[in-house]
């Protein structure tokens, strides 16, 4: 049985959806008009049912709460999950034959640094099997599809169900983020920290990062089906201020010899 034609997304704050994100949602409907859109908000999911989610919501760290809810949505109903800042370029229908699919999240400028290489063998396997984050390489959390009840989703959910978002000292449990966690769990299914197509156990496929790309200045290619704009709603106000001035400022990027980042409108128009 194929993955059902449902697109799940989260919006937990109760605030109006910004116009840029509404533009993203319209690309889903344009490219996959026969898919049902399912909104997960506080009416759809009982946020107090899971301590990690309840605490993230109490701190208004909505994206961390969504890290659990997206897994729950796919585990209980099946379908496709998209972050609200994902621009869809092509229909995903050909991927529905798998039991689970997503892509590698790969950030070349970080992944090629010595620290990452020190953690990995030449084949992309971990030198130390300890649950950890590998800088610059993970699993794309913004775009994924799955059959209802997939065991990989159950394993990811179990990790969150043992955690608290607010730690005893009052700080937030953010050292590991979703791409790190999802990748570490996927190691049990055969995942390697390499930016290439990987066919794993339980009919899972992990595509190279170019299939579900992130807007980090890398060239978006003909094989790209969707782009995660990286709205960074989970970041602090000061972090976003710095990023706007520096890392995400296209004038600064050009001075440093980096590719400019695309706007949502440019991605939607296919101006790659």
Automatic annotation (TrEMBL):
Gene Ontology cellular component terms for the protein in this record: membrane
Keywords for the protein's UniProt record, in alphabetical order: Glycosyltransferase, Transferase
InterPro entries given in the database record: Glycosyltransferase_domain, GlycoTrfase_DXD_sugar-bd_CS, Nucleotide-diphossugar_trans
MF annotations from Gene Ontology: mannosyltransferase activity
Recorded superkingdom: Bacteria
SUPFAM superfamilies documented for this protein: Nucleotide-diphospho-sugar transferases (SSF53448)
Gene Ontology biological process: mannosyl-inositol phosphorylceramide biosynthetic process
UniProt cross-references to PANTHER family, sorted A to Z: INOSITOL PHOSPHOCERAMIDE MANNOSYLTRANSFERASE 1 (PTHR32385:SF15), MANNOSYL PHOSPHORYLINOSITOL CERAMIDE SYNTHASE (PTHR32385)
Protein name, as recorded: Mannosyltransferase OCH1 and related enzymes
Species this protein is from: Candidatus Termititenax persephonae
